[in-house]
Amino acid sequence: MNSGSSESNKNKTLSPEAEFSNKLTFRDYLIASEQKFNQPLPLWRVLVPLALQTGIILAVPTQAAYTNLLGREVVLQTISSNPQDVLQGSTLSLDYDISRISNLRRLPGWNELRRRNRGRNGQLLSGTNVYVILREQQSFGRGVPRAWRPVRVSSTLPTSLSDNQVALRGIYQDGVVNYGVETLSVPDEQRQQINEDIRSSAENSRNRRLRPITVKVKVDPQGNAVPVSLWVRDRNYRF
User: Fold this and answer.
1) CA 14, CA 17: separation in Å to the nearest integer?
2) Domain segments of the chain: what residues?
3) What percent of the chain has pLDDT above 90?
4) Which region, left, alpha or beta, applies to residue 60 given φ > 0 means left and ψ of -120 to 50 means alpha?
């Protein structure tokens, strides 16, 4: 009987996992865990998050640089306004004539744009893309250039335009269309002179309101714009 029992025990072999578990002590587990914790991370686990963060940080400057490089020069015009509303410390807050819905609704394509993006009370949905097609106006001489004329609007980027036209992309928000060039940072060396010209322009007008400012922007093939320069009266300031 003992011989049979001994033979049976010999036939019962432990699996490698069970045998390793019997030999592993809690101290061995702690040592292994500490070694794994202190092991340096693979290089890719460091570089990938860093690359993603860098891409996010550089996204806006890269878009501006792309627009500045490939964009086409377009001239816009602001509306007459109170100088106190324009001067905001080191920035200029501008209101363009094409920002006003009252002006855009007169253009061809407005009814179709509103039908596709109708919100409550017949207003456009907030966040609606508005593409304003502008046509170049011939300028004469070296003075202040003429603003490009809006000829129609669309809810999608036009696929083909004539050589003297460009599509400017705006976003409808809070009753107006913003094109990303409404707030301009004024360089320190130009701030005082710009402020003086703005005040002088308002003082020389009958109703003490600032005469329209002409702004030159660059518009890329997707309709995004960046400011290039502006004219206050007949003086040009570059950014």
Assistant:
1) 8
2) 16-70, 72-238
3) 42
4) alpha
